[in-house]
Amino acid sequence: MSTAHLTIDRAEINRANSQHSTGPKTAEGKQRSSLNALRHGLTGQIVVMPTEDLQAYQLHLKSFTDECDPKGAIEAHLVQALADASWRLNRVAALETNLLALAVGNDPDPVNGAMSIVAALESQSKALANLSMHSQRLSRQFERSVMQLRQLQETRRAKEQKDLDSLIDIMEMCESEGETYHPSADGFVFSKQQINAAIRARNRERQAEEAHEYRLESAAA
Q1: Are residues 8 and 115 in the same domain?
Q2: Residues 90 and 183 in one domain
Q3: Last residue of some domain: 156, 176, 198?
Q4: Do 44 and 132 belong to one domain?
Q5: Given Cys at both, which of 29, 75, 173, 179 links 70, Cβ 3.0 to 4.6 Å?
Q6: CB 60 within 8 A of CB 80
Q7: Whole-angstrom distance, CA of residue 207 vs CA of residue 211
Q8: d(CA 187, CA 163)
Q9: Are residues 204 and 144 in the same domain?
């Protein structure tokens, strides 16, 4: 089972669990509840709230998975953390907009609207400060996850490159001696595509070196 499938399953489980909530049933009650305390939506274990689109979250998660291309459980976990933090940051922005929209109302007069916004900022200062606090916390969490993922992937890619170089050295040695070599015998788990790409890269490096040496010899002649 792929890591992307596992993370989507987790989102579906979270959403299913959230459906057991015994909170407000009316539209007005749900709207007030979504702005009240902000505890479950921004700090709880449920990532996708009952009022949010699970498919939109899955696409959001897929965009992170496609870009970061995680390998292994730890990288997949960090990518999941990035997607979740980003999703919650987007929710903060939506909650701020809803909070002010509720306070301002639908008065078409621009002067009254401006005054309502000022009044809303004053009356909802505590809720807005709370949102700001959560936004800063989520931003720090996002940045930490990005740094950890980059370090982990850099280490992994450096090891992969070292192992590939060793594998090609062994393959060339066996080929020069007329022997058949099976990479799996030494624990190498690279695909044919990876091995062929590495061989092409090494051949290009050699061609570039030979061309450079030829130019130096031609210039010295």
Answers
A1: yes
A2: no
A3: 156
A4: yes
A5: 75
A6: no
A7: 6
A8: 10
A9: no
The domain in which residue 172 lies consists of 159-220
Per-residue tokens: 127:
């809720």
Residue pointed to by tokens 């993922």: 149
Per-residue pLDDT tens over the stretch 155-196: 999 999 999 999 999 999 998 999 988 888 888 889 899 999
Q: How confident is the model at residue 70 (pLDDT cuts 50, 70, 90)?
A: very high
Contacts 24+ apart (CB under 8 A), 133-139: 134/38, 134/42, 134/43, 134/88, 134/92, 135/89, 135/92, 138/42, 138/85, 138/88, 138/89, 138/92, 139/85, 139/89
Q: Is the CB of residue 92 less than 8 Å from the CB of residue 138?
A: yes
C-alpha 78/C-alpha 136 separation (Å) is: 19
Spatial distance between the Cα atoms of 166 and 101, rounded to a whole number of angstroms? 62
| Cα 166 from Cα 77, distance rounded (Å) | 30
Q: How far is CA 210 from the centre of its chain?
A: 42
For 7, counting Cβ atoms within 10 Å of its Cβ (0-12 exposed, 13-18 middle, 19+ buried), the class is buried
Where residue 84 falls among pLDDT bands split at 50, 70, 90?
very high
